[in-house]
Specification:
Blueprint lengths: L6 E6 L1 H4 L3 H19 L4 E5 L3 E5 L5 H6 L4 E9 L5 H16 L3 E9 L6 H14 L3 E2 L6 E8 L2 E10 L12 E4 L5 H11 L4 E7 L5 H15 L6 E6 L1 H10 L5 H20 L4 E2 L12 H9 L5 E2 L7 H11 L2 H4 L20 H8 L4 H9 L2 E4 L11
Parallel strand pairs: 5-6, 5-7, 9-10, 9-12, 10-11, 12-13
Antiparallel strand pairs: 1-3, 1-4, 2-3, 4-8, 7-8, 11-14
Helix pairs in contact: 4-5, 6-11, 8-9, 9-10, 9-13, 9-14, 10-13
Length: about 400
C-alpha cells in the first residue's frame, strides 16, 4: 500500500463518548478546535465512525501533536485496504501485518460495521491462517502482536501503528483554575492533571529571595507549549519579598514556612477573584514537608475563600517524579533551587492549630501582600521569551 494512502485517526477518550449526546457534541467542538490549534495551519479535522476523529496536517509531527491533545486516548496510523470480498480483504491485511507477525504470537481483532455476507470471525480466521503461514503463531490471550482492522461498510483500514494519547477531557470544557507555581517538580504536574480534566489554568509565581521567576515561567511555557493547544494562559509574578522580610522579623522560625504559605494563599485568592477564576490549585502532597501535614493543609485551606484543589494529595514523590518525566517538565523543573527555608535550619511545627497558623500570618500587614498583588507583573505565556521575567 502506498505511503500516501495512509491516514491518521484519533480515538476519543471514554470520558467523552460516555457523555450524553448533547454534552458530547459540545465537547467535540472544543476538541476539534484544540486539535486544529495543535496541528497548526492547514490542518483538517472531521468525525470518523466508531468514536474517532480523522485528521491531517502538514505539521512535521502530527501524531505527537494529536497525542498531546486532551480528549484523544490514542492516535492510530491507518492504511486503507481495498477489497471486493472477504478473501481479498484477508490477503490485503495479512500482507500488511506479516512483517510484524513473523516469528511472534498474534491475535486478529477485526471491528466491523455495516452489512456484509461474512462475519468478523470469518475474516479473523482467514487472516490468521495466512499469518501462520508467514511464521506467526496464534495466541488469543496474550499475543505479542494485535492485528487490528476496521471495516466501515465497503471501506476497510489496517491499523499500522497506535500511539497512546493524553486522554481525559478536552481542555476548556471545565472552568479555569489558578495554579500556585513554584517552578519545581510538583506544581507543573498538578497543573497538567487539572488540564487533563478540561480545566484551563493560569499561573501565579511568588518571587522570593531564593526564587527564580524566569525559570518558573520557563517551566510553565514548556507545559503549555506541549499540552495547552487551544488555551491562552496568563502568568502572574508577585514580588513577596517585602512581606517575607516582615514575616521573618515578626514570626518565630517554627511557623514561618507555613505562615508564608498562608500569605501565598491569600494573595493567590485575591488574584483569582480579580480574574474571575473559581479555584486555586497547588502541588501539595500529604506529608511531603512540614507545611503539607494534614493539620497545616487544613489551615491553608482556611486561608483562601476559594476552593483549594490538590490533585497530587495522595501521590508519593516517586509517582510525581515519574509523571513529570512523562509530561516533559522534569528536567527543567529539577534545575530549580530549593524552596526558601525560613526556619533557620531548626525544628519546625508539623501540626500547629489552624488558628495559630493563621494568626502568625496576620503579623504581616495586609497592605504588604495586597500591594504586591496590585503591582504584580502579568504575562501571556504565548508571548513569553527567556529573560523577560528575570528577577
Amino acid at each position: 500500500m502506498a505511503e500516501q494512502d495512509e491516514f491518521l485517526v484519533g480515538v476519543l477518550s471514554s470520558d467523552i463518548f460516555l457523555k450524553s449526546r448533547r454534552t458530547r457534541a459540545a465537547m467535540l467542538r472544543v476538541l476539534f478546535d484544540n486539535l486544529r490549534a495543535g496541528l497548526g495551519p492547514g490542518a483538517t479535522v472531521r468525525r470518523w465512525p466508531g468514536h474517532r476523529v480523522r485528521f491531517a496536517s502538514p505539521a512535521p509531527d502530527p501524531i505527537g501533536a494529536a497525542s498531546r491533545t486532551f480528549g484523544i486516548a490514542a492516535v492510530q496510523r491507518m492504511v486503507p485496504v481495498p477489497f471486493e470480498d472477504v478473501d481479498e480483504l484477508a490477503e490485503g491485511v495479512a500482507a500488511l501485518a506479516a512483517p510484524a507477525v513473523a516469528g511472534r504470537s498474534f491475535a486478529v481483532r477485526p471491528r466491523r460495521r455495516g452489512p456484509h455476507p461474512w462475519r468478523s470471525h470469518d475474516l479473523a480466521v482467514r487472516v490468521g491462517d495466512l499469518l501462520r503461514a508467514c511464521g506467526g503463531s496464534v495466541d488469543l490471550t496474550a499475543p505479542e502482536v494485535t492485528v487490528e482492522v476496521r471495516i466501515e461498510g465497503d471501506e476497510a483500514a489496517y491499523v499500522a501503528d497506535t500511539v497512546p494519547g493524553a486522554g481525559g477531557l478536552p481542555l476548556g470544557t471545565q472552568d479555569g483554575a489558578l495554579v500556585l507555581l513554584s517552578g519545581g517538580i510538583d506544581s507543573p504536574v498538578a497543573a497538567w492533571m487539572m488540564m487533563s480534566r478540561g480545566c484551563p489554568v493560569d499561573m501565579v509565581h511568588f518571587v522570593l529571595e531564593c526564587a527564580q521567576g524566569d525559570h518558573a515561567l520557563a517551566v510553565a511555557y514548556r507545559l503549555w507549549s506541549e499540552w495547552g493547544a487551544g488555551s491562552m494562559p496568563v502568568a502572574h509574578l508577585v514580588d513577596l519579598r517585602p512581606a517575607v522580610d516582615v514575616l521573618v522579623s515578626e514570626v518565630g522560625p517554627k511557623l514561618r514556612q507555613v505562615a508564608l504559605k498562608v500569605l501565598m494563599m491569600r494573595a493567590a485568592a485575591s488574584i483569582a477573584a480579580e480574574e474571575r477564576i473559581a479555584a486555586l490549585v497547588t502541588g501539595e502532597s500529604l506529608g511531603q514537608v512540614s507545611s503539607q501535614t494534614l493539620a497545616h493543609l487544613a489551615a491553608l485551606s482556611q486561608a483562601s475563600p476559594l476552593p483549594v484543589l490538590r490533585p497530587l494529595l495522595g501521590l508519593p514523590k516517586s509517582e510525581i517524579v515519574r509523571r513529570a518525566i512523562e509530561i516533559g517538565t522534569h528536567d527543567l523543573s529539577s534545575r530549580a533551587r530549593e524552596v526558601c527555608d525560613l526556619s533557620g535550619g531548626g525544628p519546625v511545627e508539623v501540626a500547629a492549630a489552624p488558628s495559630r497558623v493563621l494568626s502568625s500570618a496576620d503579623s504581616v500587614p495586609v497592605d504588604l501582600w495586597s500591594e504586591a498583588v496590585t503591582r504584580r507583573r502579568r504575562f501571556l505565556l504565548a508571548e513569553w521569551l527567556p529573560g523577560m521575567t528575570a528577577d
